[in-house]
Amino acid sequence: xxxxxxMENYKRxxxxxxxxxKIEAVEVTxxxxxxxxxxxxxxxxxxxxLVAVERRAKHLIFKLNSGENLLVHLMLGGLMYIGSEQDSxxxxxxxxxxxxxxxxxxxxxxxxxxxxxxxxxxxxxxxDLGPEPLSPDFTLEAFDQSIQKKRGALKTTLVNQxxxxxxxxxxxxxxxxxxxxxxxxxxxxxxxxxxxxxxxAIQTILNRGLSxxxxxxxxxxxxxxxxxxxxHHCYVYNREGEPCPRCQSSIIRDxxxxxxxxxxxxxxx
Length: 269
Hints:
It comes from Metabacillus endolithicus. Belongs to the FPG family. Monomer. This is Formamidopyrimidine-DNA glycosylase. This protein is α+β, with helices and mostly antiparallel strands and 269 residues long. It has two domains: 4-125, MutM-like, N-terminal (N-terminal domain of MutM-like DNA repair proteins, Alpha-Beta Barrel), CATH 3.20.190.10; 140-263, Helicase, Ruva Protein, domain 3. Helix content is 27%, strand content 20%. The protein contains seven helices and ten strands. It has helices at 4-18, 38-45, 119-125, 140-147, 154-158, 169-178, 192-211, and strands at residues 25-28, 50-56, 59-64, 69-73, 79-83, 93-99, 102-107, 113-117, 252-256, 259-263. The chain has a four-stranded antiparallel sheet with strand order 1-6-7-5. Strands 2-3-4-8 form a four-stranded antiparallel sheet. A two-stranded antiparallel ribbon has the order 9-10. Strand 9 and strand 10 (259-263) form a beta hairpin. Helix 4 crosses helix 7 (192-211) and helix 6 crosses helix 7. The longest helix is centred in the C-terminal third of the chain and has 20 residues, at 192-211. The chain is globular and about 55 Å long. The chain starts with a helix and ends in a 6-residue tail after the last strand.
């Protein structure tokens, strides 16, 4: 499932390519992907101009000049691609939005969705989300107070969207590795130094993921050579049995609260 760096990567690309452009046509091939009858959905979106692209947690928001919003959550297997019919991936598209010569394809949204929402509905959807970890408002002091109250394992705490928004399976393992902490450690048992290390690891790893275009295995447009590069730069995730990049011990794969978890038992304490 795409996490914060992947969705932020999409956001930056679409900001460059689509802001200020008019939606000329909308095609829906799977009605369950949207939240309104097809005719109503198409009528509300077609002819509108895209004025902004925002991200909140693992969601992307396309803001229309009508004041309404298209909210996308890719969930497991969802992807987006911008291009033409000729260069688009040979995968099932649930929704296609035409910006003239450029088509924005929503792909593999069997679990994901594209909903048309008012600002009030959008705010209600985001009500329970935790802070954005790359926001200036996400401070060490605030994090320090919050993490001390968490009695669960760091792995489950970091992926809890009510605690921090946007972190999932992959980056939680990478963050714990960067902080030199085992994913099974409890938040309320960390020392002051460990809490600080964890906070800075969150910043470092999410920015690192973004610098490599995240880990999605498909480019966002034809000449996109960045998206997905993080898959080749993971420290521990999906690297079971490989040498730890820090101490050369074998990376372990385990399960924690039914989630696959990767770590180095030698240099994570």
